[in-house]
């Protein structure tokens, strides 16, 4: 800089009659202004380039035959708050069956998993066949019976179940790539089959009014997994396999506690992404 451009400025600043003092002051202020601008630009660049890209797999719409809506919504809220970039996927396949949610009974309708999932995704859902692990930093699969009916056949075959090939391929791809996954409610059964010996939680293994599905925890152990008892507002992190699980609606708990537990799951998944 040409310091001569600052001549005459001293008369405008009380106490700065000394030209050398004025020059040093102006230079220092200019330095801080330039560095502040650079820092602000760097912040914008950092925040825009470091947003985590998260794939969320849906399995329909509704607790009894699809994705549990409250779980999906809570997960999406927490991801949004964390600044993650979310893309939702679902199998473009026929649902196992359709359940009348007023009566809890199957009906004769036939519906498509992807079309039903679009209700939750507000239309923005992609065919699961197009999911490429390279395009995402993490994977999250909400619960609901759809995970046990449309993403696997756990609901009908129990311990003899299998995971749908598309879903199995996606989970194994994320696992091989060392990318974190989050699963909740009944969806950890998908990890139990595709990641042998993994650690997970579906809540508690002692059945009571609060934990009506405790038998699932025992089944996970029989499958060779390590089940860790956790309360609804807690998660278990399998650091080796980068798998984060929480019980959600496997617990008979207030909605806000389930919401909070899912928030911890999302946070821990993003930490590893």
TrEMBL record:
<dbReference type="InterPro" id="IPR029062">
    <property type="entry name" value="Class_I_gatase-like"/>
</dbReference>
<dbReference type="InterPro" id="IPR002818">
    <property type="entry name" value="DJ-1/PfpI"/>
</dbReference>
<dbReference type="Pfam" id="PF01965">
    <property type="entry name" value="DJ-1_PfpI"/>
</dbReference>
<protein>
    <recommendedName>
        <fullName>DJ-1/PfpI domain-containing protein</fullName>
    </recommendedName>
</protein>
<feature type="domain" description="DJ-1/PfpI">
    <location>
        <begin position="64"/>
        <end position="245"/>
    </location>
</feature>
């Amino acid at each position: 800089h040409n310091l001569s451009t600052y001549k005459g400025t001293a008369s405008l600043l009380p106490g700065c009659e000394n030209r050398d003092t004025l020059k040093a002051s102006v230079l220092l202020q200019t330095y801080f202004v330039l560095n502040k601008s650079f820092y602000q630009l760097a912040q914008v660049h950092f925040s825009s380039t470091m947003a985590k890209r998260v794939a969320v797999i849906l399995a329909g719409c509704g607790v009894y035959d699809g994705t549990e809506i409250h779980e999906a919504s809570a997960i999406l809220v927490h991801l949004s708050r964390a600044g993650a970039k979310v893309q939702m996927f679902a199998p473009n396949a026929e649902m196992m069956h359709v359940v009348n949610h007023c009566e809890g009974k199957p009906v004769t309708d036939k519906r498509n998993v992807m079309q039903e999932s679009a209700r939750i995704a507000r239309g923005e859902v992609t065919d699961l066949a197009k999911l490429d692990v390279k395009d995402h930093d993490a994977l999250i699969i909400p619960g609901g019976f759809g995970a046990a009916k449309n993403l696997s056949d756990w609901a009908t075959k129990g311990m003899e179940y299998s995971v749908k090939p598309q879903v199995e391929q996606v989970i194994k791809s994320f696992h091989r790539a060392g990318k974190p996954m989050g699963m909740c409610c009944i969806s950890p059964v998908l990890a139990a089959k595709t990641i042998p010996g993994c650690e997970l939680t579906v809540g508690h293994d002692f059945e009571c009014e609060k934990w009506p599905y405790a038998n699932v925890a025992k089944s996970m152990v029989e499958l060779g997994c390590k089940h860790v008892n956790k309360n609804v507002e807690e998660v278990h992190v399998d650091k080796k396999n980068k798998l984060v699980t929480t019980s959600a609606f496997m617990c008979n708990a207030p909605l806000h506690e389930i919401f909070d537990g899912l928030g911890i799951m999302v946070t821990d998944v993003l930490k590893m992404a």
